[in-house]
Write a structure and sequence with these properties.
With 318 residues, this protein is of the alpha/beta class. It has 11 helices and 12 strands. Helix 10 (238-247) links the parallel strand 8 (232-235) and strand 9.
Length: 318
């Protein structure tokens, strides 16, 4: 396992913030500077990954684009990305764009003007005319073969969840998801559902429309009212699944009606119900996004796509 900023701080007997200032050429007293230098050399910290950028202050801040910080997945992602950037002595600028492409384009322009070193992007907008070597990585979104995409095993994980419902006796399985406005790995969740229905000759019943975050309850309500004969629903997000749970008589949950969500990050928010979920590894997604972006900034080769495995968590709803 590679050394962390905390390891360097511990060995040098200084705080993490002092190490961060050193890496960014901020003021650090001569004795502490020498201890940090020796600790970095001893541990090999960052020397094999972007050290030159960090020490020369060419890498000073990274922008993270999210559609909204009010959504649990995006707020969790922002927390993890900030943690991993901080450990590398890099500041994070959070852009909660609310779908405002002008705001996102302004930040992209700042990258071109070297005011921001790079971007990690989760957006509902397709940003045009990106250079092939742009210092950008995305979460789930596809901006072209030269822009790395970090994602979960959406298709395979969705199939496993659906097979679980089938093995539990469900035969009238619905699907609810939010349709992205840009090419996205999220679409693989619906693709898995449709392939699953074909495999077992089941009638597909699904809602896959574009809607704003915060409208999950209304979307779930309309879907359930239009399809009263379902015995289970696979939901493309925790918030959709929780909305279905709210709308379903509790006496039916598990005994006659099952719910599975995709995301699996809201256990702390919904402490009174543990959703059965496909749980994305948000920590691993964030870490990979940071590492791939730093590699890109260092001129190292990167791949078109990086896939992080999910876990299936058995809760109280399926």
């Amino acid at each position: 396992m590679s050394a962390s900023l905390g390891d360097v701080a511990a060995l040098a007997k200084v705080s993490k913030s002092t190490v961060s200032r050193y890496l960014n050429d901020g003021y650090v007293s001569s004795d502490k500077r020498e201890r940090i230098r020796a600790a970095i050399e001893s541990l090999g910290y960052v020397a094999n990954r972007n050290a030159r950028l960090l020490r020369s202050n060419k890498l000073n801040s990274i922008a993270l684009f999210v559609p909204t910080v009010e959504h649990p997945f995006f707020s969790c992602l922002a927390d993890r990305v900030e943690k991993f950037l901080y450990e590398r002595g890099v500041r994070m600028i959070l852009v909660s764009s609310a779908g405002d492409i002008a705001k996102e384009k302004e930040m992209i322009d700042m990258v071109g003007e070297k005011m921001v070193s790079g971007c990690i992007v989760v957006t509902h907008n397709l940003i045009p005319n990106l250079p092939e070597n742009a210092p950008i990585v995305t979460i789930d979104r596809h901006f072209g073969p030269t822009i790395p995409c970090i994602t979960s095993d959406n298709y395979e994980a969705s199939l496993r969840a659906l097979e679980y419902l089938y093995e539990s006796g469900c035969r009238h399985i619905g699907f609810i998801g939010g349709r992205p406005l840009v090419p996205s790995e999220v679409n693989a969740r619906l693709a898995a559902y449709l392939d699953f229905c074909r495999k077992y000759q089941l009638m597909p019943v699904y809602s896959y429309e574009t809607f704003d975050h915060g409208q999950e309850y209304e979307v779930a309500k309309a879907f359930l009212q239009a399809n009263p004969n379902l015995d289970s629903v696979f939901c493309g997000s925790d918030l959709l699944a929780y909305s279905v749970y709210q709308l379903t008589p509790k006496s039916l949950i598990l005994s006659r009606f099952k719910i599975i969500s995709f995301d699996g990050i809201t256990e702390k928010l919904f402490s009174y119900v543990r959703l059965t979920s496909v749980a994305q590894d948000v920590t691993a997604l964030a870490k990979m996004a940071v590492e791939v972006l730093l590699d890109r900034l260092a001129g190292k080769p990167t791949k078109e796509k990086y896939v992080i495995p999910t876990r299936f968590i058995r809760g109280e709803t399926a």
